[in-house]
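Predict structure. Chain length: 211.
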Amino acid sequence: MQPIRRSQFGLDPPPAPASRALPPLGTFVGLLALLAVALFLAQSAADTPPLAEPVGNSAAQPEPSIQSVAAAPAPSLTRGEAVARYRALDALRLRAYRQRDVSLFAAYLTPDSGLHEVGRKEINRLRADGVVMRPRAQTRRISIRSLHRRLIVVRHVSVQDPRFYSSGKDITIDPQANLVTTDWMLRPANGVWKIFNSRVRAVTRLRRGTR
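Prediction complete.
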């Protein structure tokens, strides 16, 4: 198998030198990481409506249609409430991956989110290979990009530096932190706000020791 690029928490950093051959497990974990947290970051971005500008300009943006979630309307949120709601959902997301627990997906994802299937496949592969992922992330900034009645877009800027373990041993390939800017789309489902999708906006590889 040819060496592949290792992703950081679902990101795709510059390729490793071609002369460096990865061990079988390392190669597999690198492949896992390419899928890992596609749950979190970039699955079905093409299906996501264009983002509105910051909240002050949101009135001029058309609201996306909600086709497959027939649910009671969620309460309107202030910016502060939207940030607090997103933080709670994000904590559940990280917990699901730390514990490799797919049953937690329903607590933070809308029923029609394509991230359910991606996450189940990824966690099943981690379990099958006896690999545990520690999605280490440090928040730099959280802001509201759009605040519609049926769509909230939260921008999360964070330092992501995941680790992979097997039999208690750190098997992370070329550990490197990235500064990641991600927009998270929240939609109402059964009367509560949950994550529907996400889109990566920027990735900056950080120097070692920078967080």
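Summary: Residues 165 and 171 are 5 Å apart (CA to CA).
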